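Render this sequence as a predicted structure.
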Amino acid sequence: MQATDTHDHHHHDTHTHDHDVPHDHRRENAQAWVRVMILVGLAVYFAYNIVTGNLSNYINERFAWLSYLAVLLFGVLGAVSLAAMRRGEHLHHDHEGHDHAHSPIGWGIIAITAAPLLLGVLIPSRPLGAESVDGNISISPLNYGAAALINKAPEQRTVLDWLRAFSFGTQPTEFDGQPADVVGFIYREPDFPADVFMVARFTVSCCVADASAIGVPVQWADADTLPEGGWVQVQGAFLAGDFSGQTTPILRAQTVADVPQPEHPYLYP
């Protein structure tokens, strides 16, 4: 009689365990699905930025290969996670009621993993502009080197190329009369003379987090009427003069024409 009671008690315990298992499995299954969607979502997000060209809003183009690697990595991880989840479901059905050792990734970790994807999707991708300068603009960038300057005609030089040339020059007046044709956005500070603005660009060494603004001072009669942040093509010639208390080459503009924002607005040192 005692043996029968013990058997009944053991049967009752097993029944309780069976009741709890589906609940745990559902939670793990939900986490697994979310994990797969995040991994696949990240792969699609990187692929989208590559295809649309938005990648240049985030990183220096010479590091673009990392994004191709990310597409491959997240795609493979997503496929592996999906396969593991399917295999786990199969095992669960085959061994329903058995005690398995599960170590699911918590929702907190999943949320942290999802954060970059959500930020990337919800916040529009657009390059930095005049509103991001905030007074921190350089006319004498350091450590940019003189690479590729020798074979560039003056009219082909960018804002960055000119600042490189200035930094390697012996005196500001040596650039007097040299023609220039540069594209950049308009930047002005309150203490600029009415006939002066800067034609500016952002340089990106690695990613947009290290972006820095550079610019060439331009003299133009109607400088104070130009729209802040608008993109322009400036043609003219340099003549040394005073700018912010120092003698520097100033571009005396002959024409200032509105242009659309370049497809790749950043310059890369």
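Summary. The first strand starts at residue 137 and ends at 138. The helical segments are 2-52, 64-94, 107-122, 159-168.
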